[in-house]
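Let us practice reading a record.
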Amino acid sequence: MWFPPFPLTMFPSTHPLTVRNFPKRNLKVWFSETDEKRSQTVGHTKSYAKVVVPRDDKLLGRSAMVHLTSATKWHVQGRVV
């Protein structure tokens, strides 16, 4: 049986969408789609991290500054500044 050379809990998560990588700051986001089921507008950062904000169809096809408020495994949440 194989065991890793170090305990996996020793190191912080290196997932790209952790709060550690996106402290509460502002980033430029390009918006491209709407998630009607969750009533959110979806966009991406320059590094293609998924960002969701409360639904606003005026943002589609545009970019805006977004204040990041939290991060999950799959996306970053924020509000338009």
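A brief commentary: Residues 66 and 73 are 19 Å apart (CA to CA).
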